[in-house]
Design goal:
Blueprint: H1 8-49, E1 52-53, H2 54-61, H3 65-77, E2 81-83, E3 104-107, E4 113-119, E5 124-130, E6 135-140, H4 149-167, E7 174-181, E8 184-186, E9 191-194, H5 205-213, E10 217-221, H6 222-233, E11 242-247, E12 251-257, E13 260-261, H7 285-289, H8 291-299, H9 310-325, H10 329-353, E14 357-361, H11 368-385, E15 388-391, H12 396-411, H13 416-421
Parallel strand pairs: 4-7, 7-10, 11-14, 14-15
Antiparallel strand pairs: 1-3, 2-3, 4-5, 5-6, 8-9, 11-12, 12-13
Helix pairs in contact: 1-2, 1-3, 2-3, 4-5, 6-12, 8-9, 8-10, 9-10, 10-11
């Protein structure tokens, strides 16, 4: 039987070797993390600001020219970005001097795909787009009954897989999908908490879609999706503080504070339809300022909202909106009253939050009488805190696609080695 003598010197050597090896592992991990962070920064610079030269990327990211050159080479080989042809001098521009011209880089639109899914009472659509969010295909479900989540989810996945099978040759190039949904959503768990307008309870939507589509899926409430999309890529680009309000059959909101969405307890921040507007004790914001409110004002006791299918209510609201735009006096007055109530209700929120902008979206945001009345009610507080009113025309599915590009192209680490072996579209 062999025996081993462990001395203090042996223990010291063992400890020293372990610490050295652990330090090397930590250093390697730190370098890998830094490399991934720098790669995301370069890709984000091109996606958000492209076309850009390598010098321009270096200025935005504060990386060295050598680092930018190395990272862009990897991204080009993975077909995520591409070099643009040099533009020829035009008669209206002075000729460029001698020397090497800057080659600009931009997103390679054919480098991948994303899915955007939008579901509300007006439409249920699945869209496929390239990496510049240029729509490739769209399928509309046009469901007459939205109250059964199993029926809706099964149809969504069936249509989404049909689109992907038809247009995507390599599933590895399908980076992910985003789902913009009307209701309270837990995006961390991918769970719909509640959807009063679709009459859904809790549904594990993200997990079911991820498994059925075989791709990662992000779930967001519709107002949050619009706020994220517009603040990152659209009319509110660069704004870190934004109050976004979706004006549809009901009223929902999202708050962007210092660049982060405010989720609230149980992810219910933004469900403002049940509050009582100031000076209006007779009803809630939904009853007075939403599509429901406009229809109730026009139809009175002839309308039973709880007994009327959501798609029928949506059709009635679209008809009322058309009448208002065409100058029907009663409809225009009801629409303007609803917009005024919304604006007056938002005044205390603006005074509290001091956002850079308040942005309204949804069907009612396309009706001039509604928008003008809301703007007039907000004008005094808006001037006081330098807050402008923005109008978003993003559809639910378009907003979802931008969220998918942000989530799966900019925020997550991509396996470039696999993408280099995979052919772009």
């Amino acid at each position: 039987m062999e025996t081993y003598l462990i001395t203090v010197s042996n223990l010291y050597m063992i400890k020293s070797n372990w610490e050295t090896e652990n330090k090397v592992i930590k250093t390697d991990r730190t370098r890998m993390d830094l490399g991934r962070t720098n790669r995301r920064a370069v890709l984000a610079a091109v996606v958000l600001n492209g076309p850009l030269s390598r010098t321009g990327i270096a200025k935005i990211t504060n990386l060295t020219a050598a680092a930018v050159s190395r990272i862009t080479r990897d991204l080009i080989e993975a077909h995520l970005i591409e070099e643009l042809p040099e533009a020829a001098d035009t008669p209206n521009e002075p000729p460029r001097g001698p020397g090497r011209r800057f080659v600009e880089l931009d997103v390679n639109p054919s480098g991948g795909y994303i899915l955007g899914i939008g579901v509300n009472v007006f439409s249920q659509s699945i869209t496929l787009a390239d990496l510049k969010n240029r729509r490739i295909a769209r399928h509309d479900l046009k469901l007459s009954n939205l109250t059964d989540p199993n029926v809706v989810i099964n149809r969504l996945t069936e249509e989404a897989n049909a689109i992907v099978d038809q247009h995507v040759q390599d599933r590895q190039r399908l980076f992910g999908a985003s789902f913009a949904f009307t209701g309270a959503v837990d995006p961390e768990e991918g769970v719909v908490r509640t959807s009063p307008y679709l009459r859904w309870g809790a549904v594990a939507l993200g997990e079911r879609l991820t498994q059925a589509l075989n791709t990662p899926v992000r779930i967001e409430s519709l107002p949050a999706a619009v706020a994220l999309a517009e603040s990152k890529f659209g009319i509110a680009q660069g704004m870190k503080n934004l109050l976004a309000v979706n004006c549809s059959l009901g009223i929902g909101a999202a708050i962007l504070s210092d660049g982060r969405l405010v989720r609230g307890h149980d992810f219910a921040a933004g469900l403002i339809g049940g509050i009582f507007p100031p000076g209006e004790p007779s009803g809630t914001l939904d009853n007075l300022a939403s599509g429901h409110g406009i229809l109730m004002s026009l139809l009175g006791d002839d309308l039973d909202i709880s007994a009327t299918p959501s798609n029928r209510l949506a059709e009635s609201l679209l008809e009322a909106m058309a009448n208002a735009r065409n100058g029907d006096a009663a409809t225009a007055r009801a629409t303007a009253d609803a917009g005024r109530v919304l604006g007056e209700t938002l005044v205390p929120f603006l005074a509290l939050l001091h956002p850079q902008s308040v942005m309204i979206s949804g069907p009612l945001a396309m009706v001039p009488q509604y928008v003008n009345a809301c703007r007039q009610a907000l004008a005094p507080i808006g001037k006081q805190i330098s807050c402008e009113l923005l109008i978003s025309d993003l559809s639910a599915q378009a907003a979802a696609r931008w969220v998918a590009i942000d989530e799966f192209l900019l925020e997550r680490d991509l396996n470039l080695d696999d993408l280099k072996l995979s052919e772009a579209a």
